[in-house]
Design a protein that fits this description.
Elements: H1 2-28, H2 33-39, H3 41-61, H4 65-84, H5 88-115, H6 120-134, H7 136-149
Helix pairs in contact: 1-2, 1-5, 1-6, 1-7, 3-5, 4-5, 5-6
């Protein structure tokens, strides 16, 4: 249980990075604040589409691990591109790649944790604990942002 929670927590931190900082990253690439808010929608739409597609194939193939690795790899490529570029086009493409890679890993990890728990009661407790503890990743990101500001 602990390794499943740690695995999911390590995947949730990049999700919060995409969710909390995409408008700021887009704004820093030269767009206005209102434009950055509007341009932050397509990465999430692409993330949603990739989550549905990867979730369906993951269930059809009854495999979880390879899909998590591919999603994490795609997300890492997006973050690397975002880190090394200062131009709006590649930076925006990097945000889309990162969101398309990181969001499916959450759904697959939760399905993986639920599939490994036996019985309805255990499955419910495991899913609640995994999601609850994984959401602490957002708290960690906010704490780190507070430490950087002060």
């Amino acid at each position: 249980m602990t390794h499943v929670t740690c695995r999911l927590s390590s995947v949730v931190v990049p999700v919060y990075a995409v969710a909390l900082f995409t408008p700021t990253i887009i704004n820093n690439l030269g767009f206005s604040a209102a434009g950055a808010q509007l341009l932050s929608i397509p990465p999430f739409v692409c993330g949603c589409i990739s989550t549905v597609i990867i979730g369906v194939y993951s269930d059809k193939m009854n495999l979880r691990g390879p899909f998590v690795v591919v999603g994490a790899g795609a997300s890492m490529i997006g973050y690397i591109i975002a880190y090394v570029t200062s131009k709006p086009g590649p930076g925006y493409a990097a945000a889309i790649i990162a969101a398309s890679g990181v969001y499916p890993t959450i759904a697959v990890n939760i399905a993986w944790a639920g599939g490994n728990a036996g019985g309805d009661m255990k499955r419910g407790v495991v899913l609640a604990m995994v999601i609850g503890i994984a959401n602490l990743g957002g708290y960690v990101i906010l704490l780190q942002a507070e430490l950087v500001v002060t």
